[in-house]
Write a structure and sequence with these properties.
It contains 22 helices and two strands. It has 446 residues and is an all-alpha fold. The protein has a two-stranded antiparallel sheet with strand order 1-2. Strand 1 and strand 2 form a beta hairpin.
Length: 446
């Protein structure tokens, strides 16, 4: 009865896929036959949960083929159906011991297809929810099969663009593994750093959330193995122009357990974080980030004042060397230009030499105000025009003066592309009628 009424070919997907689908904003597609399907699902679930249910008799009908067809239904777009399927599959996993390995294998295959082939499946969150409960019941020590599942299946799920749909369930599964086997922390964190998003800021925030959950359960010995690559990535996040990424990374300094780990390993962590913190304390555009960075610097200073001063002096020295390289490079270009002006053919390209070969804007670091050759002047605000220094506002005014009034008022028009001289195309365009009368908005009486 259950198979005849529920096992069916699902209709083509109508919801947006991937990152375009937002479960909180987009309305799910509901199954038209749900009143009938709901009755069958409720009947079968009560049948499974009945105290009179005998798995030895039912295993003749609830076999591997039945489970495979049940897993296919997880791609249904109706969240109500997926919720029933999740509960039913969990009950089957608990009652049929012989099917457990097969169920795990088929869930793995579903994830493999999702990650490496289709990148579209509606039931990933529900399957991960089932796995979270299964992982919680794994016996110790973990089997090699379960460790491979973590490293080869769960970690690659982080790289899919629709991660936001199932990330809470995925993070829960990963943390469950690490609570049972702390030795897996290093490969998991290195895997996260491998799949770390480069240009997707909301996804980067999700990675930071998961990483903090992992650090909450990490062992001090495991922390020492990953702290260098981990804080190099956090330094990049603190320097991110996207304020939500920088803000989420700086919230790590409000976590007492993480700060206790950092305090024990300050000699390795502070030299990595200090340049990013100090630079962005002055240059980041968001004022909230400034306050969070000052808080982080204050905590580092309280941890180890001597180390903090050493990092400050080292940073100042590196900045001085950077400015020396800039001055040296500009001196080399000046000498090249002087040699070029002595060339007999200089008049042929004199208009090119009249312009500066490069304009470099060097940000003045507060640590380096004394002795900085650029202190008190802003090279980016001055431009050489016909041999004299002109400020950008003056240059803008000059440009406005030399522009004819008629041209300033002339609107910008988009240039139309030429159509190919194809008779069938021209005929189709002539016969085309716009549907303006159908698209017009009806006026409502106010």
């Amino acid at each position: 009865m259950f198979s005849m009424n529920l096992f069916r070919t699902l209709p083509p997907a109508s919801n947006p896929t991937g990152a375009e689908y937002d479960p909180e904003e987009d309305e799910p597609t509901l199954e038209a036959a749900w009143p009938h399907l709901q009755l069958v699902y409720e009947f079968f679930l009560r049948f499974l949960e009945s105290p009179d249910f005998q798995p030895n008799i039912a295993k003749r009908y609830i076999d591997q083929k039945f489970v495979l067809q049940l897993l296919d239904l997880f791609d249904s777009e109706d969240p109500r159906e997926r919720d029933f399927l999740k509960t039913i599959l969990h009950r089957i996993y608990g009652k049929f011991l012989g099917l457990r390995a097969y169920i795990r294998k088929q869930i793995n295959n579903t994830f493999y297809r999702f990650v490496f082939e289709t990148e579209h499946h509606n039931g990933i969150a529900e399957l991960l929810e089932i796995l979270g409960s299964i992982i919680n019941g794994f016996a110790l020590p973990l089997k090699e099969e379960h460790k491979m599942f973590l490293l080869k299946v769960l970690l690659p799920l982080h790289k899919v663009k629709s991660l936001s749909v199932y990330h809470p369930q995925l993070a829960y599964c990963v943390v469950q593994f690490l609570e049972k086997e702390p030795a897996l922390t290093e490969p998991v964190i290195m895997g996260l750093l491998k799949f770390w998003p480069k240009t997707h800021s909301p996804k980067e925030v999700m990675f930071l959330n998961e990483l903090e959950e992992i650090l909450d359960v990490i062992e001090p010995a495991e922390f020492q193995k990953v702290m260098v690559p981990l804080f190099k990535q956090l330094a990049k996040c603190v320097s991110s122009p996207h304020f939500q990424v920088a803000e989420r990374a700086l919230y790590y300094w409000n976590n007492e357990y993480i700060m206790s780990l950092v305090s024990d390993n300050a000699k390795a962590v502070l030299p990595i974080m200090f340049p990013a913190l100090y630079k962005n304390s002055k240059s980041h555009w968001n004022k909230t980030i400034h306050g969070l960075i000052y808080n982080a610097l204050k905590l580092f200073m309280e941890m180890n004042q001597k180390l903090f001063d050493e990092c400050s002096q080292k940073y100042k020295g590196e900045r001085m060397r950077t400015l020396d390289r800039i001055r040296e490079r500009e001196g080399v270009w000046d000498r090249v230009e002087q040699v070029a002006r002595k060339n007999p053919k200089v008049r042929a390209c004199g208009h090119e030499l009249a312009q500066p070969m490069c304009l470099q804007c060097t940000a003045v670091d507060p640590l380096l105000e004394v002795g900085n050759p650029y202190h008190g002047s802003s090279p980016a605000e001055l431009v050489t025009l016909d041999g004299e220094q002109v400020s950008l506002p003056e240059l803008d005014g000059k440009a406005h003066e030399v522009t004819p009034a008629g041209e300033r008022k002339k609107p910008l028009l988009r240039r139309k592309s030429e159509l190919p001289h194809d008779m069938s195309t021209l005929t189709a365009i002539e016969r085309h009628k716009r549907a303006d009368e159908f698209l017009a908005t009806s006026k409502e009486n106010s």
